[in-house]
Amino acid sequence: MDRPVERPATKLLRVLDGEATSVPPIWLMRQAGRYLPEYRVLRSKAASFLEFCYSPALAAEATLQPIRRFGFDAAILFSDILVVPDAFGQKVSFESGSGPRLSPIDNREDFRRLRETIDLAHLDPVFETIGIVKSALPADVALIGFCGAPWTVASYMIAGQGTPDQAPARLFAYREPALFQELIDRLVAGSIDYLARQIAAGVELVQIFDSWAGVLPPAEFEHWCLEPIRAVIAGLKVRCPAAKVIAFPRGAGSHLMDFAVRTGADAVSLDTSVDLTWAADRIASDVVLQGNLDPLALVAGGDSLRKSIAGITGTLRGRPYIFNLGHGILPETPITHVEALLRQIRSQA
What we know:
- This protein is α/β, with parallel strands linked by helices.
- It is built from 16 helices and 9 strands.
């Protein structure tokens, strides 16, 4: 069992322990990114995005930039979900303007080229980044680690790139269910190892991103989304009993209630499409909710933003929750709108 890390009593961790605060903790998915001028300057210092992720000094600075500017209640490690297939030996690169590119897995021979277990030494730069951030982070700010869910990571590994509906991975799972299960099992084990090492390095909680959960029909959702995430959380909590886990099954829709009950997640992050009234009524009160401001409302600002924020805080008031977006912040987001969001949230004290 990995040595548990002593956790500071940050607001975010208190909420994950079940405390309903008058002012919810707030952080934003992709809060380090291209909407920040200082990030754009920093990004120019690395030849490629993957090199940027593996440069501890640069990745740590990217993690800290939004904390310095906005004072969010949590920092999230700057990295990418595709460092995991990279650590399994799959070729990964990022092409400007067209996203990630991987050597696709088409058959068992391609699968055999992967390592049987994740190479954590390959990810040492990520753990070094965590140490740098932890030493510089204010004591009242939590540090979040993360990984991609097995289904979402596998979908990129199969297709070799992002696709509109992840049809290549879905077809592969139908045609080669045993081989696809082997890939998922390998990713479950690797994700447990990776998250446990992040916690040992200094993160206080982790989030599991299943960005493509919504493309799966019910039986496949159960098999490829819910069950692997349940296995990752269970395995992580054996290794790190105090670990807190937020799960983000984007597009899960009507599956959310079952997902929240069965995965063992401490919090469920809701995408923009989720009716918060339904979620507050149907999802057990001991499961913390996170979300779900539309990133476009943050881009728009003004009355639309104010009304959207008020709707979320009004619906979830009295329940432990974390304010966040329903997906990542967009590059065209004005900084003044993020400042306005924080002012409105924190004026509730």
